[in-house]
Amino acid sequence: MNRSGHRNTRTLAAAVVLPLLFLSGCKEQVTTLDDVASVRIVHNSPDIPAVDAYVEGIFIPLAAGLEYGDAGDFGLLPAVKGAIFELREAGADPGSDPLFMSEGFTLAPSETSTATIVGLGSSQDEGDSLRVIMDREEFAEVGGGTWRARFSQVVSNADVVDIDIDDDGTIDETLDRFDTSNPVGFVMPADQPNPITLVVNGEPVLKFTLPPVPEGPEYFVYITGLAGTPVGDPAEVRLLMMNTESQTLFVTRDD
Q1: Residue 194: beta bridge partners?
Q2: Which residue from 34, 54, 119, 134 has the fewest beta carbons nearer than 10 Å?
Q3: % the chain with pLDDT above 90
């Protein structure tokens, strides 16, 4: 798990190579970086415990001991179709039954992706139950004096969130539940606070201020938590910033 910091290492060569680079049932052995995908996983479900995250058939965890708000480092995985993520309670035996198994995902050769654990473990509803969503890393180049932010709406009980990025009264993005904004990211001014206003389910207006970020980095900014949760509760609506080195920072609403 990682907390705060600014360095850009989003490359296949920088990813952690898992000791076991094959999946059960795979017919082709991984031999070069052209055969693998770079993947990390983020814990963004406010009501499940700390977990170890695996890919089915690999008994070394992709990330271990992830608590809500934590992100694992990038790992190199076989480029296959139908890769299934498994979640086990932190410290559980790798051979034990998982708490959760995702749908199958295609891990494309030489691609870099972020898998995010979202939804509620306590729900059986198709709309907000526990799941994994996958986003390819496709940020555009960063210009001088700027950084880039890509927003993801993972508030499980919010059908829609409107985002005003610079608090000028204009809605810059509207995201349905579990959607992520354009892969290239929004251009943000560097070295200064960035105000963010959210309208959740058309009602409450929540104001946040992202801390100053130096020129160059790329961040996912997750809108996370549960709408209607009191301030100070661990599940309150917050922003979770995550840079390319998987370092994370919760941002609480302005007073």
Answers
A1: 210
A2: 34
A3: 80
Q: Which two tokens stand for residue 171?
A: 């809605």
The strand pairing partners of 200, in sequence order, are 161
Answer whether 100's CB lies under 8 Å from 67's CB: no
Residue 128 identity: D
What is the domain partition of the chain in residue ranges?
12-251
> 123-140 pLDDT, tens per residue?
999 999 999 999 999 898
Q: Is 205 exposed, middle or buried (0-12, 13-18, 19+ CB in 10 A)?
A: exposed
- Please give the C-alpha separations between residue 61 and each of 15, 16, 54, 137, in angstroms, as whole numbers: 14, 12, 5, 21
Torsion of CA 187, 200, 223, 142, to 10 degrees: 0
φ, ψ (nearest 5 deg) of residue 228 = 90, 0
Round to whole Å and give the CA distance between 225 and 44: 8
Q: Give the Cα separation of 23 and 79 in Å (integer).
A: 10
Distance CA 201, CA 158 (A): 6
Q: pTM for the complete prediction?
A: 0.89
Burial of 48 (0-12, 13-18, 19+ CB in 10 A): buried
Mean pLDDT lowest among 71-75, 85-89, 137-141: 137-141
Q: What is the pLDDT of residues 197-232, one digit of tens each?
A: 999 988 878 999 999 999 999 999 999 999 999 999
d(CA 193, CA 35): 41
Residues 6+ apart with CB under 8 A from 247: 2, 3, 4, 5, 6, 71
- Collapse the DSSP code of 186 into the 3-class scheme (helix H, G, I; strand E, B; otherwise coil) and give the result: strand
